[in-house]
Amino acid sequence: MISKNVILRFSPEVVGEPIVYLLVKEFDLVPNIIKASVNPDKQGYILLSLTGEEENYKASLKRLEELGISVQCLMERIKWHEEICTQCGACTAVCPSLALSIRRPEMAIRFDSDKCVACQMCIQACPVNAVTLDL
To answer: Cα(100)–Cα(1) distance, rounded to whole angstroms?
Structure first.
């Protein structure tokens, strides 16, 4: 069983398709919509957490791409720039998913992109803009 956060990008032609239903029905995946911006007249996106068997997950990505839906892993879009991070810990105080935490005993910030839900609270909290997100 795996759980991955992905960004699905839609063209106007596919916005009306029941994509979440397809993921459940055809691939036995459990989707959790984290964030969405879909407009019938424009391109849209959905940030999803998908949980299920790895084989089904991989097959679903292929099917989505066949439908003309761009699929990207969230890990590719969110970046923690360790080289500019001052290790102040402000981001860890606001991270609801514990993707950002303090590694002890070193007292260094640790970023686990698999846990990130793209809430963007760390971006607002960081005084040096060490976290960026490109949705």
So the answer is: 23
